[in-house]
């Protein structure tokens, strides 16, 4: 697994498109997110269908074709420097195969930011575009508009990424040791359900795998991890970095599941690094080489996330 291409960092005045490839968006939070981006001296705008809702499938922000068109149009617009997802939810799996990846590759590298359901897109951007992406707070998310820690870390990542090359865990080592590899991952459920589909890596060999999830009971986390183990997707992984497990049951019940399923891999595993569905979520780059020290609870990037 090799380093991917790092997009350029943002500068004041950069144009930022906000898209909704997954679930419907709360207008009030979207406007708050756009205002926050303007406060960072950026020039944000919402794609045409961001506030749409599918007529029959209310868990989707507009039709698959509309959501895909918004994303592709924003990415291929030469005036746009970054594309930020408005929220997660569900729906990215339904649009990823509708995108013209050749046209998007021709558009060149730019910043892509999203998390949760956007895991499907992070994988596709890595496989089809060979591009580093950012797994972090979304434009219409509560964390993005209300949490100072999340805002400050994301802003530093976008404008001064060399200042946030080391991320430190709030927890302990689930399995001790040190490892190096290229970061990949995201939401566990999306990685498990994406196995074997187009635009998805065949495995995590040589990588530092970042995992988190929300709303999955311990047995469901067990099921997803067991799926990745049985398929061989985790074979050769260099190390594992665990984020938040919000609404996944008491952590004292979930931790033995993580230890049982991941401990057998014989690689360092650090827990509670502070990314994902948690208050003050950190922004983590996917596609860069990093050093994991589970004993000190640190993940240190070899180079800044953005050029």
What does this molecule look like?
- The protein has 307 residues and is α/β, with parallel strands linked by helices.
- Helices cover 32% and strands 21% of the residues.
- It contains 10 helices and 14 strands.
- It has an 8-stranded mixed sheet. It has a 6-stranded mixed sheet with strand order 2-1-3-4-5-12, with helices on both faces.
- β13 and β14 form a beta hairpin.
- α8 (188-194) packs parallel to α9 (218-231) and α9 (218-231) packs parallel to α10.
- The longest helix has 14 residues, at 218-231.
- The mean pLDDT is 97.
Strand order of the largest sheet: 6-14-13-8-9-10-11-7
Q: What's the helical proportion of residues? A: 25-40%
Distance between the termini: 20 Å
In percent, how much strand structure appears in the residues?
A: 15-25%
Stretches where pLDDT falls below 50 for ≥5 residues?
Answer: none
Quick summary of this structure?
This protein has ten helices and 14 strands. By secondary structure, it is an alpha/beta fold.
């Amino acid at each position: 697994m090799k380093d991917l291409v790092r997009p350029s960092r943002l500068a004041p005045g950069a144009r930022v498109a906000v898209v909704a490839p997954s679930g419907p968006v709360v207008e009030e939070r979207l406007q708050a997110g756009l205002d926050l981006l303007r406060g960072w001296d950026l020039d944000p705008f919402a794609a045409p269908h961001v506030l749409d809702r599918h007529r029959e499938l209310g868990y989707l922000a507009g039709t698959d074709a509309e959501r895909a068109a918004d994303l592709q149009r924003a990415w291929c617009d030469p005036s746009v420097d970054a594309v930020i997802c408005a929220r997660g939810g569900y729906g990215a799996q339904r649009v990823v195969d509708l995108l013209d990846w050749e046209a998007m590759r021709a558009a060149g590298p730019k910043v892509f930011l999203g998390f949760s359901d956007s895991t499907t897109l992070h994988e596709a951007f890595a496989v089809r575009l060979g591009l580093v992406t950012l797994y972090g707070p979304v434009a219409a998310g509560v964390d993005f508009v209300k949490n100072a820690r999340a805002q400050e870390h994301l802003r530093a990542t976008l404008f001064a990424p060399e200042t946030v090359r080391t991320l430190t865990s709030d927890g302990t080592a689930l399995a001790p040791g040190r490892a190096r590899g290229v970061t990949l991952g995201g939401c566990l459920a999306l990685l498990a359900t994406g196995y074997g589909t187009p635009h998805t890596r065949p495995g995590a060999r040589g990588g530092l795998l970042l995992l988190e999830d929300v709303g999955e009971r311990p047995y469901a986390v067990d099921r997803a991890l067991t799926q990745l183990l049985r398929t061989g997707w985790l074979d050769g992984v260099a190390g594992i970095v665990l984020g938040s497990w919000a609404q996944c049951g008491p952590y004292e019940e979930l931790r033995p599941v993580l230890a049982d399923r991941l401990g057998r891999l014989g690689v360092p595993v650090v827990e509670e690094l502070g990314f994902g569905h948690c208050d003050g979520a950190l922004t983590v780059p996917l596609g860069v080489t990093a050093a994991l020290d589970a004993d000190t609870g640190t993940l240190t990037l070899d180079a800044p996330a953005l050029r």
